UniProtKB/TrEMBL annotation:
Record domain HTH tetR-type: where: 4-64
Entry protein name: Transcriptional regulator, TetR family
Organism from which the protein derives: Pseudobutyrivibrio xylanivorans
Gene3D superfamilies: Tetracycline Repressor, domain 2
Superkingdom of origin: Bacteria
Keyword flag 4Fe-4S: no
One Pfam family here: TetR_N
């Protein structure tokens, strides 16, 4: 059995506190009191709660994207996993969207993480060679569009099933990026 790391325990504690409190009102003390750690332990792991949010989201997304095996089928499976993850974490993610702003806005964090993840997938498909600026723009455009669409769906601005959301992710994946997948 794998033991949880301090980072994982702090992230779980943050999720628990976020069920009862707006993100912008959560303090490091709230997080550490909830799990029995000291603030010093928190600061040995993270610079602030926003670093915890970014680390936690990256970790969860990487787990889902591990399904991408260089094929279109693998990508489609991962995109379905992303839609399901958004549904499972809808309340928590809505709290992040609504109660973070400025330089710490979660939408910006989400876009950065998705961009780096998709760029890595394309980079691997390109044999780890440099990708040109046009390809980079396709990655950015896809990420910006899907992140905005996802945030509006998470916030309940429109309704769709996770299957339909995944279908849109799959069908809007830029044709020029598909050449990097088998």
């Amino acid at each position: 059995m794998k033991r949880k790391t301090s980072k994982e325990i702090l992230a779980e504690s943050f999720h628990e506190v976020a069920e009862k409190k707006n993100i912008d009102k959560i303090t490091v003390k709230d997080i550490t009191d909830n799990c029995g750690y000291s603030p010093a332990t928190f600061y040995r792991q993270f610079t602030d709660k926003y670093a915890l949010i970014a680390w936690d989201y990256t970790r969860e997304l990487e787990e889902i994207l591990s399904e991408v095996d260089g094929t279109i089928e693998g990508l489609n499976k991962a995109l379905r996993g992303v839609a399901e993850f958004f549904q499972e974490r809808r309340g928590y993610l809505a709290n992040l969207f609504l109660h973070t702003g400025g330089l710490e806005a979660f939408i910006t964090c989400m876009q950065d993480i998705h961009y780096e993840s998709l760029k890595d997938i394309v980079q691997k498909g390109a044999g780890n060679q440099h990708i040109d600026s046009i390809t980079d723009m396709y990655i950015r455009l896809y990420v910006l569009g899907t992140a905005q669409l996802s945030s509006e769906w998470i916030l309940g601005r429109w309704e769709a099933t996770t299957e339909d959301l995944a279908k849109v992710y799959q069908e809007t994946f830029p044709q020029p990026l598909k050449k990097y997948l088998k």
